[in-house]
Fold this protein.
Amino acid sequence: MANEIIERAYEVAKEQYAALGIDTDKAIEKMKEVVISLHCWQTDDVGGFETPDAELSGGGIQTTGNYPGKAHTMEQMRADLEKVLSLLPGKQRLNLHAIYGDFQGEKVDRDQIEIKHYQSWIDWCKKQGIGMDFNASCFSHPMADSGFTLSSKNEEIRSFWVEHLKRCREISAEIGKQLGTPCVHNTWIPDGAKDTPVDRNGHRVQLKKSLDEAMATDYPKSQMKDAVESKLFGIGAESMTVGSHDFYLGYAIKNNKLICLDNGHFHPTEQVGDKISACLQFVDEVLLHVTRPIRWDSDHVVTLNEDVQLIASEIIRSNYLDRVNIGLDFFDASINRIGAYVTGTRAAQKAFMIALLEPTETLKEYEEEGKNFERLALLEELKTKPFGAVWDYYCLKEGVPVSEAYIAEIQQYEKDVLSKR
Ligand code: RNT
Ligand code: ZN
């Protein structure tokens, strides 16, 4: 598309939104505050670098597909991430799992990791000018094979994971310190039961004890922030999840932690968008794992659907951008992974841009006056306003491929780089 057409379309869109009282330039400016943390694990199907060609195993999460070209080494992963960053407008962060350490061919077990194993990632982030988030990896490990980690009744297993978590938090604090932006550390564990357990309580007592032990050290909020991620069920853990939403919401409120809301982790008709303003009455911040569950927590590539739209709109309507940390959590191994990444991230960004182009004040007025037909009608009409022209112009201004132009760039990258792996 010629720049001139993009600019012309933008001018028309600008006038149309102005008629609704919306300043599109301001919306574009506000997109600076929409910082998305890129989950590194879409580049290699949650494999990690502990052993050559490590694969996701256990933990009730699964990737499906074996599309060629996945990242096998740190260099490949960084090249992929750089490609992704070059195709996205706005600012991002990196979200790294502990299994992606720079282990230099050494076998470093999870209870042995140190800051030195992540220094090259910190340096990489510094070079990119981005912040970094971190995650304990409590899956794909023999110590997780029993189905229980931090909630295990086996003391050897439990203390192994407590040590891992302690170290991950310490590493996170150092990451935040070096990069000058707080590192959000997320704890998710797969613990649960395939069949109806009798001692649910026993495991929850263990989990609380483990979290208390692992989080005993306080770090300044300027360096790291803890998040805890709940889940409804996992494959092989269909009957009970120890770290359920009730459990972690309680833990987060009591201990002033962030609650992580992954929109694949609830009953299918529950809306994470609805939970944001509920949780934020009681916790300072939330972390989001934006994903697309299909029939189960399938972690499909995010698309611009109503679930994601509600999440974005709720944040913008309530002016909560500074209390919500936006992360992604999808991993599709059946298509070009870089393409998956860029499409999914752009979809999340688009949802925020649409939210920023809403005449919220007018809608609120209708609502307060009981004019519910008017509210419904305006919400419907907004769906066909020329949002795409604003999005395209934003991409143009940001110097990234506009609209579908990124497809060709990814095809080229596949030809030049991915297909040679
Ligand atoms: C699993 C959780 C968790 C993981 C990542 C890899 O169901 O969503 O966030 O997907 O930590
Ligand atoms: Zn998640």
Remarks:
- The pocket of zinc ion (ligand 2) is lined by residues 188, 229, 262, 289, 329 (CB under 6 Å).
- The longest strand covers residues 92-97.
- The radius of gyration is 22 Å.
